Input
Amino acid sequence: MLLLGQWHNYDLKISVREHERSLTVSAMWEGGLFTAAYEGGGRPRTFITQGTVYRRALDGRMLAKWRPAGAQRQRRWLTQDEALQMEARARGLVQAVYDDLQRGVLQTNVPLPPLGHTLFQRAIAWDEARSRADARRYRAIYLPIGILPPDQYSAIVLQATLGCSFNTCTFCTFYRDRPFRIKSPEEFRSHAEAVKDFLGEGIYLRQGVFLGDANALVVPMRRLLPLLEVANQVFPAAWGSIGRPASRADGGMATHQSAWGGIYAFLDGFSGEKKGVNDYAKLASLGLKRIYIGMESGHEPLLRFLDKPGTPKDVLHTVQAMKDGGVAVGVIVLVGAGGHFYADAHVRDTIALINAMPLDSHDIIYFSELVVTDDMPYAQQAAAANLRPLTHRECQAQEAAIRAGLRFRGSKPRISRYDIREFVY
Ligand code: SF4
Output
């Protein structure tokens, strides 16, 4: 429901989304247009003001993103104090609007529905102590979540495994802080239940389950199946209903059998017990919808330089088996990897590998630009090998060259960008 009004001589909008249990307030505040969006339990989600978008992560950190005129997008993680100050500024807006609504000073085209009152009150009650406590609770449930594919930012992450079973890739530092470990079904169930409890009404804004960490699907079938069963039992919405309010199109009666999204995961590197078509078909029958593979490149010498486990042939066989088993794929290409030295071969062999894959409109190809930080072994190895890095423009040209070479037999997969600096869970 959208409520419109005038507040201090400027337009005001209040959006109360029943099926998402979310509240968004947009009004003139502190000298500029300010938008504040909240989950159903009152947890802040996004603020927008003065051309900057602030995304609050579940651990309480906040990423600010803005684009200066004519320049590339900029980003910065706020300090904890800055993040709490942003929450306080937004809370001030929500409180002031609600007070004026209550006093009858602010008139809107339609009255605030009962759910709207509840959401306002919860957003106002989300004070600094609550925010800090929520972040502590998050950290007790999760180890830091390194990355998700962009189409999975709204998933419910469940850490069925911890870390990466390889941890060798020189450009990746996401899981260096933890050894690889597979959770028992009992431990995983208690984690999943804690996640569900923690998300509370925020769950209505989430879609599907992402099975973490890095390569949860490397787990042998006999151990993986019970974990998927637990995910389905704790989050039956991945299949059917968690009591999520039905949409109007359902006549208010039906549950969300298919809209809720299913189960997703990474499979990265290939070793140990390989899965075949029947395994993937079994996983699909348990709700697995798409697997994301960090293929990085089709050029094997570049994979060796990156210390990436597996070969292009392994990737191709695995994608074929997944597709034959009824599971969609997301393949991720690392743009700029290997700098100028590997550039031509990277483009040529990546095109050839993707073109050999049986991709269709259910699949996604992601182009992820290499982001090098000083703590990455890649930084030292590239310097030792005298590799000249690609500039951002050269990376864009490399992506364009790969895209130009892609040919698909039938319907086209989605092709998109994947910027690891944008990730917020
Ligand atoms: S296999 Fe994936 S998660 Fe593991 S180190 Fe390599 S890129 Fe990182």
In short: DSSP finds eleven helices and 17 strands in the chain. The first strand starts at residue 2 and ends at 7.
